[in-house]
Fold each of these.
Amino acid sequence: MPISYNGKYYQRSGSTTVEMSGSELAHFLISKFGKTWDALPSDANFEDIDMSTVNLFKNLARKRVPSISDIDSVEKVFTNRELLTEDGKITRAGLLLFGREPHRFLISAKTRVGRFKTSTTILDTVVAAGNLFNQVERTVEAIKKHLSVKFEIKGIVRQDIWDYPIEAIREAVINALIHKDYLSPAEIQIKVYDDKIWMWNPGGLPKELSIEDLKREHSSYPKNPLIANVFYLAGFIELWGSGTKRIVDLCKEQNLPEPDYKEEQGGFSVWLYKDIYTEEYLKELELKERQIKAVMYVKEKGKITNKEYQQINHTTRETSKRDLEVLVNKDVLKRRGKGRNVYYELGQLGQNWVKIGSRLGQLRNNGASKGENITNRGIG
């Protein structure tokens, strides 16, 4: 526990004692009074509230709050959601969720989306402002305009297939808005590259969770619980800590590489990776036709064994073993299991993604400039 001495707070970290400062100290002092940041009063009044968003919430929340009514006043909606302080002031959660222009009161309450060709070449920038309900939609649309989409007919239904599952993108955006440390002056930042998306928000994981916990079932520790509760009632999230695992599951269902979660640069990031397991990409790695055929098999079936490799390629066990080892060494596949239970599933192509993705992006752009017919471009 932190201790106070001469007006400063100190905390033990390993074998040293360090002074607490910045947002860490602010959150600690807020918690000492049994509060969270989003429960503190704002300087806004009801003239600063966007009634169309309040009405939208009423409609969205009706499934989980059957008693909510169209005729409920904004004061009643806010009171029932604990968005007013004891003396009737609008909380910071209420301002962020329903304000017309929350960034006028909280300068970092915005999301910045950029389309990046390289780490220094920026093709497009969109700043999504407004309340959190508006930011969700504006941010997702700002990302989608830089993605490719194709469609498949399943039965009699047309299904759009984007580069990434849109629901996974939406989930990551909502998580960033809910868990952002709004004491930080930094905005939420999202960078869309040819082959990946990087999403970052200020504020690290709660001390109760590790990065490994995020890819399995875990408890929920929202940094801004009032914001999280309203999003839950609106049907945007579940309050079970299932969002990060759902992102992983959605990517796997679309045969995409597993996303990465990281604590970096004073915040938390989500890395989504595009499907680089196409024949065009794999040929760049100088793979044999039978190896490419095996990768396509894994994309469809989820995994492959040595015996299945032999069967689909009509080759020997030793050749199959050598081919599979090459695929593992190039991070195309990863080996699972032991002994007779060994199988192979999709891996992560590591640094090859960046090189190949950049090269493919150049080829597409060059082709487009020459008037060639390139399908599913959708690239900003």
Amino acid sequence: MTITTATPDDASLIADAIIAAIGPELTDHLAGDHNTPQDVHDLFARLAARTDSQYSYLNSRVARNDEGNPIGVCVSYDGADLKRLRRPFFAEANKTFGWGMTPEEIEAVPGETEPDEFYLDTLMTLPEYRGQGIGEALIRDAKLKADAAGKPLGLLCDIDNDRARRLYDRVGFIDRGQRPFAGHDMNHLQLC
């Protein structure tokens, strides 16, 4: 297995990972009454192909097997950059979903991370490769980026996602309490 920085060609894979991370309920909520889950996927793929979004291929690392096929993906970035990096998301969402949020409303949206941590936004191992240590390898790779930034690696984990929580506990994440995200409380974890 090798882990390398993603390329624009990985945009659809990155979007798949984001959709898997947010789950069908939030995907449907984003789509609303006038869009489809595919529209949501396409929005995230557009963001992943950009250089200036939190979901950018530049913030994404892809694990590949010996044949060069993708087997996992991780999106992470410096929490100090969140407000700047998420502006493209809101601009795309305003356009795609008709949200009509003003710049002031966008700036007022609470962040899922803080400036003093490096944020692991999205982690996905393709289903047929789960249980082989790929997620753990991607976390350790993200931790190297966090260490280079001099910050702990932080993430939010759904309270009901026991499988992910077992992985994070096994790697050594520490519970830092709960933080609201997308309308419900999530476990805030950090790896120092």
Amino acid sequence: MNIIVCIKQVPGTNKVNVDPVTGTLIRDGVAAKMNPYDLYALEMGLRLKEKYGGTLKVLSMGPFSALEVIREAIYMGADGGILISDRKFGGADVLATSYTLCSGILAMGEFDLILTGKQTTDGDTAQVGSELAEHLKVPHAAYVRELELEGDRLRYVSNLDNKTVEATIKMPCLVCADGEVNTPRLPSFKRKMEYGNCDDLIKIITFDDIIDRDETHYGLKGSPTQVERIFEPDKTKEKVIIAEGDLAEETFKILKDRKYI
């Protein structure tokens, strides 16, 4: 089984400043980490690889600093990684991001399974996984907590809002892992000593390496969603305690008086 796990480097803190001119997050100098939900997807893939054999590679899109999360994945057990990095990919919304990831995966060759986390902690859209599947024209399942191989299909259990679904999906396919479905392993110190910076196991893909070189499909040019402004919400410690009376009625009055409803 050839498995690809999409991972992303995200800020390691929620205290990130916003550029007042561009309205974008200032990531320079901010501690970064692998997106927590991607860790569940990676662990799910590593367990499938250990049980059924095959290879597992990770794919990330971002600046060269994202090499750190690819190395972390290799220390955890991945066989290698791909970094998609080019200034022409910068400023992408979910549509352009998913299309760029699609282009990177097509450059990697054949696959049986693509795994992603259900969402990222910096964007929280939970859209990239399903959009990536649409670009690749493969079936996909979301919020998956269990995954087992059955011939050329995968049997999965998915958590929906009001029910649990058990079904099968034909490979090649894409699966979005739900949160807290397993306990991700720690990076292996032995593998870190063995592979070092993992230079031989990581490939960098730029705009010149992909098949579709229409710049209107990538980055800001390929993003129909344009963010006008990002700002930090006002922080206040003000609170209201309702100690008596009808809780629902008193809450309604407060919300109405403040014109929230």
Amino acid sequence: MLGKATLLEAIAGTNRGLLATEQEKQAILVAIANLEDVNPTPSPFEATDLLNGNWRLLYTTSKALLNIDNLPLYKLGQIYQCIRVETNRIYNIAETYSLPLFEGLVSVAAKFEPVSRRRINVKFERSIIGLQRLIGYTSPESFIQQIEVGKKLTAIDFPLNSDKQQGWLDITYIDNNLRIGRGNEGSIFVLTKVNRSSSMSSCDH
């Protein structure tokens, strides 16, 4: 699809938005809007096979995510959003890196509820921050498995007040390998689907 290729070309080299100029941001917004106009899946929650799985962030305007790159000594690595339709859960996972053996992880677990054809309400429930080697982190998939079986993690691990920590997300485009979302704070997210069975190494920056 031409519109899809145009968007991917526009975001290439922006390092998920960290390096995007104002001119590039405007071009990306136009490419996103053009693609949203031809969304092949207007009711994403009826296409759970598309929505379910692990997604890697390609581009965002979210300051909350991009500001992780400003942490002292740390740089932002890959960011994943993993959706588990069967349990109505979302896991946001941001990898960070600095010196060898000091790669970090910032993660938030949330519960979601579909409220329209394309919108979900999200309630954030748990935050986990720590070193990948102490957590035993090798991939988003293995990390989520640890959480779901209730394994105690060697990390800063604390509950969030879901009544206060909540928002919504519109899924404005989704196909078999690309998803676009718009959040309640005006942020835009462009993600690509990754194979859940693949070894998504935390060293792949």
